[in-house]
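QUALITY CONTROL LOG
STEP: pairwise intake check
CHECKER ROLE: data steward
CRITERIA: each record must contain a sequence immediately followed by its structure tokens, with no blank fields

ENTRY 1 OF 2
RESULT FIELD BELOW
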Amino acid sequence: MKPTTPALQPRSRLTIACRDREDLLTLRWDLDFLQSLWRSLPLEEGRTGEALRWLSGEGSSFGIEKIFVEPHLAQRLGVEAESIRFQGCRAARHDDHIHMQVGK
């Protein structure tokens, strides 16, 4: 599977979540035939890492409970926090966007 932006590919096959799973009920598709519709943009590691650090730190005071991003990106950006989670093998990949769960 490849994300929409080649720069977001895991740097090692060892870091690809769910690569050995063959679930039929999965949303982890590539949609290769659609990829040419979007520009390929490089990952801005500094800005994205800072965004994740803010969301997982100060963001909690604004109700951010969980942040969903691919494990290889959190590792690559050097961000660790209890609120940073893997969305699971049956959800859409989160290596070209970030989802957040906000509470009350």
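ENTRY 2 OF 2
RESULT FIELD BELOW
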Amino acid sequence: MFTRLYQQHAPALLTHLVIHLPSRMDAEDMLVDVFVVALEQQALLMTLSLEEQRLWLWRVARNRQVDYYRRASRRQAVALNEVVETLYEDDEQRPENIVLQHEEYHKLQRHFKRLPQLQQEVLRLRFVNGFRSNEIAQLLGKNDGAIRTLISRSLNLLREIYSREKEE
């Protein structure tokens, strides 16, 4: 019985709601609400004639529509373009900046893998693990000056790789 009720009245109700609500999604949501109420009142609907059922569904839809506009009038609307500027107070958290950071990170990884193994290890120890050059020297059995030079040359080589890529 409920399926028949839905099939008979949903198309017309949806058309009406689409015309009178700001978006099709709102209309579809409201149509679902109307039929949920009908499902909850199935005993009441069984006692009504077909015409009374139709009128009852339209009355529920109209009441829902009125409620929708009442709530909307109480809600303050702010244009999205006004909010976008304040949405991410920290520029680094903006989606476009996060995407750019990920691209740069992948580019750095790709260039980093082009370095000799010793240079990769020294840079990891220095910048990922936070070791000082004298600590790295002790770990690798080298002197501090050699490690400082190696770090400097490794960073210069990475800069050179980036420069060559930009030129291409």
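INTAKE CHECK: passed for both entries
DESCRIPTIVE NOTE, ENTRY 2: Residues 50-74 form the longest helix (25 residues).
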